[in-house]
Amino acid sequence: EDIMKMGMARHGASTTTHPFFRACSGKPLPPRSIRKNSRLWKTHSSKTTSTSDTSETLLTLPSSGASISIETVPSIDEIVQSEWDACAYPQDERAEKVPFLKHSFLAALESSKSVSRDEGWLPLHLVVKSENDGKLLGCSPLYMKGHSMGEYVFDQGWAQAFQRAGGSYYPKLQSAVPFTPVTGSRLLVRGGLDEDDRKIVSSALARGLIACCHQYNVSSAHVTFCRGEEMATFRELGYMPRLGMQYHWENRRRGTEEKYASFKEFEMDLKQSRRKNVRQERKRPAKDGLRVFRATGDDIKPDQMADFYEMYVAQTEKKWGRDYLRREFFDEIYETMRDDIMFVFAEQEGTGRLVAGAINFIGSHALYGRNWGCLPPESAAGDANLSKLFRSMGVDTGAQMSGGFKHLHFECCYYQAIEAAIELGLDRVEAGAQGEHKI
């Protein structure tokens, strides 16, 4: 679910001319406190007609009366990792944990320069702290955006309409995980707080986004791929909801709430014709001389990360896309997150040379498919002999998605992911944005 809050129209600003981007050129900005505008921070209740300023109520915790402060932070490295993760990954077995919200994932994006001012993603994370002891109570991954790329929410039409109306759409504020169309909390609240305190911190974060619009003089605040239960908080503040659609595979036997025991059991839930197709498609990589295997944790080798980056870049070039993620990003998540990663690789039998791969992230409830890549046959791992082998096998070197290998994309990205989710006992597979073929 996506929400947005439109601010005031402005004139003549852009990514390069807006004062905030100019101020950030060459040096980081220090943390900046968010001013408590009385109109913004006032509660809105139909049960009272009082016009007194109740902002102080919103800035104290009901359980203790402790005051809270709100500020923006220009780099996630300025936030202690354990403090951020106490909000993003609370020690609550019921809470769904999404690896992309981890400090280590967001830090890898920043340190690798995949996310930076020059890339049009300026970190501006919103934090709520206790003024008593400085403890982080809540946070929201936030960026000043100079464009709409890498969001998987295509709002360029809004930008054009805003411009025709006399305003300037960019820069805008975006609460999101860059390049990651995965639903997760955007109002991250520290675990262990009681329900009333959680509501206050959540509301403070949502109001803080609006306050940032005014304080930095930008057009709008957007919260993309947030959880449905956060919508009520945003709606109360006048955010406009927008619903998107993704297709997820659910690990649930037909007509029951039971999970599948094996991929074969899942196949038996399919129509006979579809079951036959799946089995034939899964056999095809072996017929083409490929071995498909998975690797996670310490089973992932550094050279495999390097190979996968080549595949990732090759795939984006085939699809006229952009390789948003830099090589250094993959190196860093290898060091800090490999227990959260599951690769699916296809290697040439006999030589062990990798020709295709898909990277997945393991959450508490879901397996998240993110990026896929396949080297073109004529340059697979730079091996001329391999190209000759492809041609002798009659492989279609013009095929774009799977490097000429029929059904390899589906095997690496979907069938292997489904099989792994069943083995791990996860609830679902989220294969990202786009169409119904992903079910």
Overview of the structural elements:
The chain is of the alpha+beta class and 439 residues long. 33% of the residues lie in helices and 19% in strands. The chain has 14 helices and 17 strands. Strands 4-7-8-10-1-11 form a six-stranded mixed sheet. A hairpin with a 5-residue loop joins β14 and β15. The longest helix has 22 residues. The protein is globular.
Please describe the topology of this protein:
Blueprint: E1 2-6, H1 19-23, E2 32-33, H2 38-41, H3 55-58, E3 68-73, H4 81-88, H5 103-111, E4 121-123, E5 125-130, E6 136-140, E7 142-145, H6 156-164, E8 172-175, E9 188-189, H7 195-216, E10 220-223, H8 231-236, E11 240-242, E12 248-250, H9 263-268, H10 272-287, E13 290-296, H11 302-318, H12 327-337, E14 341-348, E15 354-362, E16 366-374, H13 384-392, H14 408-424, E17 428-430
Parallel strand pairs: 8-10, 16-17
Antiparallel strand pairs: 1-10, 1-11, 2-3, 3-5, 4-7, 5-6, 6-9, 7-8, 12-17, 13-14, 14-15, 15-16
Helix pairs in contact: 5-12, 10-14, 11-12
Strand content: 15-25%
- Largest sheet entry: 6 strands, mixed
> Which percent bin holds the helix content?
25-40%
User: How many helices in DSSP terms?
Assistant: 14
Overall mean pLDDT: 83
Give the structural class. Answer: alpha+beta
Write out the strand line-up for the largest beta sheet, numbering strands in chain order: 4-7-8-10-1-11
Query: Which ranges are low-confidence, i.e. pLDDT below 50, for 5 or more consecutive residues?
Result: 6-17, 19-29, 38-56, 380-384, 396-401
The total of beta strands comes to 17
Shape: globular
Assembly status:
single chain
Report the span from N to C terminus.
Answer: 19 Å
**What does the radius of gyration come to?**
24 Å
